[in-house]
Amino acid sequence: MRVPAQSVCTAIRDDIVSGVFERGGRLTEEQLARRYGVSRVPVREALRTLESEGFVVTRRHAGAHVAEPTEQEAADLLDMRALLEPLGAARAAQRRTEAHLKVLRGLVRLGQERARRGQGEDLRSLGSWFHETLAQASGSPALTALLTQLRHKIAWMYAVDLPAHPVEAWSEHGAIVDAVARGDAERARALTALHAERSLALYRLKRPERGRVRVSQHVVNTASGQN
């Protein structure tokens, strides 16, 4: 069975974001095909996609390498998020479905519960799920794709500390959902912008470590086509 290039793309991107492949490191089709247990065809397609996303650069006579964003480019990612997330929340207030609201409210309840219990690692995944769902509720595939790509790049470039007062942070999430539920686009936009601004202090730029590439086989899950 032919493995979808999208699955290979997700696997390579995840390894770049997690630091398995160091910034500036070379990526050969042979190496990647062996690591993920696939042919070189989906690897080639995946590298083209990752180049368009900014994770990979192709150098003349040198092949594909992991990109090396500058500190300014990393800072720009947070600026773009600060502009696009409030736009997504405003659109969500206008276009959300009852299914979106149900998921968002459920995530807020779980987040508040985990915050009271001090379960930090759960809060990281719940926060990502919350913002992903809020983006999907915008009803704009293009905006959702941009925000998803931004989240991947920010996770690649930054380590994120847990907020000192996680219960308050999840109360902010709850207020955003309330505004979305009421269809109040301007309030949803303003609350999301404020939330993004307050969270800036939690982001610490990662310093790349050298010599971390691992080439052991990592077979791609062929049943998954999610990006």
Plain-language structure description:
The chain is mostly helical. The chain is built from 9 helices and 5 strands; from the N terminus they run αβααββααααβααβ. The protein has helices at residues 5-17, 29-36, 40-53, 71-95, 98-117, 120-136, 141-157, 166-182, 185-199; strands spanning 26-27, 56-59, 63-66, 158-160, 203-205. The protein has a 3-stranded antiparallel sheet. Strands 4-5 form a two-stranded antiparallel sheet. A hairpin with a 3-residue loop joins strand 2 and strand 3 (63-66). Helix 2 (29-36) crosses helix 3 (40-53) and helix 8 runs antiparallel to helix 9 (185-199). The longest helix has 25 residues, at 71-95. The radius of gyration is 19 Å and the shape is elongated. It starts with a helix and ends in a 22-residue tail after the last strand. 31% of the residues are buried. The model is unreliable at 212-217 and 222-227 (pLDDT under 50).
Total beta-strand segments: 5
Broad structural category: mainly alpha
Number of helices: 9
Rounded average pLDDT? 90
Helix content: 55-70%
Strand order of the largest sheet: 1-3-2
What's the Cα radius of gyration?
A: 19 Å
Query: Biggest β-sheet: count, sense, barrel?
Result: 3 strands, antiparallel
Oligomer: single chain
Distance between the termini: 19 Å
Series of H and E elements: HEHHEEHHHHEHHE
Q: Report the principal-axis shape.
A: elongated
Spans where pLDDT lies below 50 across 5 or more residues: 212-217, 222-227
Portion in strands: 5-15%
Domain HTH gntR-type: 2-69
Protein name: GntR family transcriptional regulator
Keywords: DNA-binding, Transcription, Transcription regulation
InterPro entries: AsnC-type_HTH_dom (IPR000485), GntR_C (IPR011711), TF_FadR/GntR_C (IPR008920), Tscrpt_reg_HTH_GntR (IPR000524), WH-like_DNA-bd_sf (IPR036388), WH_DNA-bd_sf (IPR036390)
